[in-house]
Write a structure and sequence with these properties.
The structure holds two protein chains of two kinds.
Chain A (H helix, E strand, L loop, with lengths): L2 E3 L8 E4 L2 E11 L7 E8 L5 E7 L3 E3 L3 E11 L4 E4 L6 E4 L1 H4 L11 E7 L2 E6 L3 E9 L12 E6 L4 E5 L7 E5 L4 E5 L3
Antiparallel strand pairs in A: 1-6, 2-3, 3-4, 4-5, 7-8, 7-10, 8-9, 10-11, 12-13, 12-15, 13-14, 15-16
Chain B lengths: L10 H20 L3 E2 L5 E2 L12 E4 L4 E5 L4 H9 L5 E8 L11 E10 L3 H14 L6 E4 H9 L8 H10 L9 H13 L9 E4 L21 E6 L2 E8 L4 H17 L9 H9 L4 E7 H9 L16
Parallel strand pairs in B: 1-5, 7-8
Antiparallel strand pairs in B: 2-4, 3-4, 5-6, 6-11, 8-9, 9-10, 10-11
Helix pairs in contact in B: 2-8, 5-6, 7-8
Classes of the chains: A mainly beta, B alpha+beta.
Chain lengths: 189, 315
C-alpha cells in the first residue's frame, strides 16, 4: 500500500484516515525544543467536505488515498447514473447522485467536467464554472428595462431554475456561473 | 526585479536586537560571566532523533562536518577545563520545517554557572529578564499546569489514560510511549496557556522528559529542568546539568538505536565531549535562550521571521 511520510505532507496531498479519503488543507509543524515533533494537520473529507483536525507524530507514515482529479466528458444520464468518458482512452465511468450533487442540473451533454476519482470511481463531479443554456420557460420580457435591476425566475433546458433580469426572453441562450448558480450575461452568438 | 532584496525586519527591530545584545553583555559582565566563542563546524553532533543537524564537508580534511545545533558540548569542554562561568551568543542550525516559531538558523544565548543548581539559575534568569524590561516570571510545576488544563496527573496517570486523552485531542494512532503522549498533550494543549498573563518558569518535569537534566532525589522524583514560557511560547530551557559520563554515553547509544529504528542516519558520538565529562566537569546549571523568540515578546511581533533581517525565505 502506498504511503506518505509526514515530511512529504503538503496541501492537497490525499490520505486515508479511518477508512475515508481526505485531502490536506493545512499542515503545521509543532516542535518543542527537546522531544517529539508533530504535524498538526487540517484535512477535508473528500466524501462529505467536512474538515477535521488530526495530529501525526513527525516521521510516521500514513496510507495514501488513491484519489485523482481528471477531466472527463459528460455523455448522458440513464436516470440513476451519469456517464462520463475519458476522451483520450475512451474509458467510461458512471457517477451516482451523491457524487453529482448540484452539478447534474447544469449538464446537457459533451461538457468537460472535473471528476475526482477514488479507487477509479467518481467521488465528486464539478460542472464547468460557466455553462451556456437555453431558457425554456420564463415570463415575457419587459422590453428596454435594462436598468431597474429586477429579476424573475427562468427554467433552463436542463430543468435548472435561475433568476434572470426582467429583459431576458424565453428561448434566449444565457451564460450561468455554476459555482453561484447566477446569471452572468446573454450568450454571444 | 522583485523586492526580495529588502530585509524583513524594520530598522526599529534591528535596533532593538542590537540593544538586547548590549544589555545581555552588560548583565553578564556584572555577573562575572565570561563571553566565549566555540566552533560552528563540528565532526560530531547530538544523536537525539528529534534534532536534525545540517551537514557540510571540508575539502582539506575530506570529512563531514555538522553545523552546531547548540554550543553545549564545546561549552562543557571549557567548563571541564576550568573556565568558570561562561556565556555565548551564537548562531545555531536545525534542519526543521519553518513555521511561526521556527527558522533553520537562529540566535541562541547559552550560559553555564558552576556551583549553581537550577533554582539559582532561574533566579539569575529572572534578574536578566527584569533588566531588559520584562516582568518577573512565576514558578509553576509541570504537574500543576497539566492538572489544571487536562485534569490528569502526568506523573501517576497510566499510559492507557494518557493515550485515550491524546486520541480525544486528535493524535492519530496514539502510540503507547509515555514520553510521546506527554509531549503531544503538553505541546498541543498545556503549553498554549502558559505565560499569557505573567511569564512562567515551568519546573519539576516528569522523569521521561529529563533530556540532559539530573533527577531529583525527592519522594516523587522529577527532572531538574525548567522552561520559560511567555505568551504560550517556549523561550528558554534550563537544566541542573547531568555530569555523569557513563550516563551520558548510555543516552547517546540509546538515541542512536532509536535513530536506527526510525530509519535515520547514525550520528557520530562526540568522544571529546565524553572525555571532558570523564575528566570531570563542575556541578553546574545551564540554560539556552532563544533570542529571536525573546525579541518577539519585546517587539510584540507574532512571527519569528519578523525579527530577522533575512529569514530563510529571503536569504
Amino acid at each position: 500500500m502506498a504511503s506518505y511520510s509526514t515530511s512529504e505532507f503538503k496541501n492537497g496531498l490525499k490520505l486515508m484516515i479511518d477508512g475515508d479519503p481526505f485531502a490536506i488543507v493545512e499542515n503545521d509543524i509543532v516542535k518543542p525544543g527537546k522531544g517529539q515533533a508533530f504535524n498538526r494537520v487540517k484535512l477535508r473529507n473528500l466524501k462529505n467536505g467536512r474538515v477535521i483536525e488530526r495530529t501525526f507524530k513527525s516521521g510516521d507514515n500514513v496510507e495514501a488515498a488513491d484519489v485523482m482529479d481528471v477531466e472527463l466528458q459528460y455523455l448522458y444520464t440513464d436516470g440513476d447514473m451519469w456517464h462520463f468518458m475519458d476522451t483520450s482512452s475512451y474509458d467510461q465511468v458512471a457517477a451516482d447522485e451523491k457524487a453529482m450533487s448540484d452539478s447534474a442540473q447544469w449538464l446537457k451533454g459533451e461538457e468537460m467536467c472535473e471528476v475526482t476519482l477514488w479507487n477509479g470511481q467518481p467521488l465528486t463531479v464539478s460542472a464547468p464554472n460557466f455553462v451556456t443554456l437555453q431558457i425554456t420557460e420564463t415570463d415575457p420580457g419587459v422590453r428596454g428595462d435594462t436598468a431597474s435591476g429586477g429579476s424573475k425566475p427562468a427554467t433552463l433546458e436542463t430543468g435548472a431554475t435561475v433568476k434572470v433580469p426582467l429583459f431576458v426572453e424565453q428561448d434566449e441562450i444565457i451564460k450561468i456561473d455554476t459555482r453561484t448558480a447566477e446569471y452572468v450575461s446573454r450568450a454571444k452568438d | 526585479m522583485g523586492k526580495n532584496w529588502r530585509p524583513r525586519a524594520d530598522l526599529a527591530t534591528i535596533r532593538l536586537r542590537a540593544e538586547l545584545l548590549d544589555n545581555i553583555r552588560s548583565f553578564m559582565k556584572e555577573e562575572g560571566v565570561l563571553e566565549v566563542e566555540t566552533p560552528i563546524l563540528s565532526p560530531a553532533s547530538i544523536p537525539d532523533p528529534n534534532i536534525h543537524s545540517l551537514q557540510t564537508s571540508l575539502s582539506e580534511k575530506t570529512s563531514k562536518r555538522y553545523l552546531g545545533t547548540s554550543p553545549e558540548f564545546y561549552m562543557k569542554r571549557l567548563l571541564a577545563a576550568g573556565s568558570g562561568p561562561i556565556f555565548q551568543i551564537s548562531r545555531v542550525f536545525r534542519d526543521d520545517a519553518t513555521s511561526r516559531l521556527h527558522q533553520p538558523e537562529f540566535s541562541m544565548l547559552e550560559w553555564y554557572m558552576p556551583g549553581y543548581d537550577h533554582h539559582n539559575l532561574m533566579q539569575q534568569l529572572s534578574t536578566l529578564l527584569i533588566s531588559i524590561g520584562l516582568s518577573k516570571p512565576v514558578k509553576l510545576s509541570y504537574e500543576a499546569a497539566f492538572v489544571s488544563e487536562l485534569g490528569l496527573n502526568p506523573h501517576t496517570a497510566d499510559v492507557s489514560e494518557l493515550r485515550e486523552l491524546a486520541s480525544k485531542k486528535g493524535l492519530y494512532e496514539a502510540p503507547a510511549e509515555r514520553s510521546v503522549l506527554l509531549e503531544f498533550l503538553f505541546s498541543h494543549t498545556v503549553s498554549k496557556k502558559l505565560g499569557n498573563e505573567q511569564a512562567v518558569l515551568l519546573v519539576e518535569y516528569p522523569v521521561c522528559q529529563a533530556a540532559l537534566a539530573r533527577i531529583s532525589s525527592d519522594e516523587m522524583p522529577t527532572a531538574e529542568r525548567f522552561e520559560l514560557f511567555i505568551s504560550g511560547i517556549e523561550i528558554a530551557n534550563g537544566f541542573h546539568e547531568l555530569t555523569d559520563a557513563n550516563e551520558q554515553r548510555d543516552r547517546f547509544v540509546m538515541e542512536n538505536t532509536r535513530r536506527e529504528s526510525m530509519n535515520l542516519a547514525q550520528v557520530p558520538v562526540d568522544d571529546n565531549f565524553l572525555a571532558a565529562l570523564e575528566s570531570g566537569i563542575p556541578a553546574c546549571a545551564g540554560v539556552a535562550v532563544g533570542l529571536d523568540r525573546l525579541l518577539m515578546i519585546l517587539a510584540n511581533k507574532n512571527r519569528i521571521e519578523d525579527l530577522m533581517t533575512f529569514p530563510v525565505e529571503l536569504a
